[in-house]
Amino acid sequence: MADSFKAVLVDRDEDRKQSVEMVELTEEDLMPGDVTVAVEATTVNYKDGLAITGKAPVVRRFPLIPGIDFAGTVLTSSHPDWKEGDKVVLNGWGVGETHYGAYAARARVNGDWLVPLPEGMSVHDAMAVGTAGYTAMLCVMALERHGIVPDRGPVVVTGAAGGVGSVAVSILSRLGYEVIASTGRQEEASYLKELGASEVIAREELSGPGKPLGKERWAGGVDAVGSHTLANVLSMTSYGGAVAACGLAQGMDLPASVAPFILRGVSLLGIDSVMAPKELRLEAWKRIASDLDHGRLNKITTVIPFSGVIDACRDIVEGKVRGRIVVEM
C-alpha cells in the first residue's frame, strides 16, 4: 500500500448534516492535477472556518479536504513551469472549495494555480501572509491605482484585528498612510497601534444603520466586514475617495444609498483573491516581500500544529482569533 498521510475531510450525510474528521489518505485518493506538492505549511482564514463549521456554503462538493492556502515543495510535475524541488505557494482557485485543499500533507493541483515562493521568504512566512495578507495587498494596490496615496488623507481598516485587517494596517502604515483601525475588540487597541494604527475606533461606530452621507473622515478604506459597516465607511469617505471591499464578516448585504457615489464621487473597488489573474498575484507577492515588515508579521502570527487546525477554524468564526495562524504540517 502507498504511504498514507493525515488529512482533514469534510463530508455530509443524506440529511445534509456536515461532519469533519482527521483521516488517513494516500496520493491515490487525491484529485487530478499536473503538480503534486508536499504541503509544509498552511493557515486558517475566516473562509476556512466557514468551510469547517458549515456556517456558509464554502464547500461545494463532498467529501472535500478544505484549506484554501498552502506553501510547500514540488514532489512531481508534468507542468512546464515546475520541477521537483521548486518552492511554491497557492491561494484560492477553488482549492478547499471544489478541489481538494491544503489540510493534508499532500496536494495535487493544476500548475497554473501556483506561484513561486518569493526570494527570501520561508514557507512559514508565506502562510503567515496567506490569503488574508495577499488579499490585503490586493486592496492596497487597488487603492494606489485609484490615486489614494498617503497625502490624500487617512485610510480606515475595518475588522482590523483579524487576518486581512492586521496585515492591511501593517502594510499601509509602513507605506506612510495614517491608518484608522476599527475593531470590535477594544482590548486589541495596543496591538493595533503596535502594527502602526494612529487611531483605534470601536466597531459600534460603524456597525449600525447609518445616514446616506456622513461627515468626511477618510480618503479610503479597506473593508473586510460588509453590511452596515461598509455602508457607513462609504458614507464617510471624502470626495473622490475609494474603498476596497474584500469580506463579509458582518454580512453579504450592503444597505447603502447612492449618495456617496453621485454626490462625492466615491468609488467602491471590489477585490477578488480567488480567481485573480497570475500577473496580479505575482505583483502582490513581490510587493508583500518588499513592503511588509516581517518583524511585525511575526508579532501578528500564532503557530499551531496540524492537529489543532479544526479547533482553530471554529475559533476564527467565533471571533476568537487575533491576526494570523500558521499551521505547521
Describe, in plain words, how this protein is organized in 3D:
29% of the residues lie in helices and 27% in strands. Helix 1 packs across helix 10 (309-317) and helix 2 packs across helix 8. With 329 residues, it is α/β, with parallel strands linked by helices. It folds into two domains: 4-117 and 297-328, Medium-chain alcohol dehydrogenases, catalytic domain (Quinone Oxidoreductase, Chain A, domain 1); 131-270, Rossmann fold, CATH 3.40.50.
Unreliable parts: none
- How many DSSP helices? 10
CATH class of the largest domain: Alpha Beta
How many independent structural domains?
2
3D shape: globular
Rounded mean pLDDT score: 95
What portion of residues belong to β-strands? 25-35%
* CATH topology (fold) name of the largest domain: Quinone Oxidoreductase, Chain A, domain 1
The helix-and-strand class reads: alpha/beta
Rg is 20 Å
Number of strands: 15
Main sheet record: 7 strands, mixed
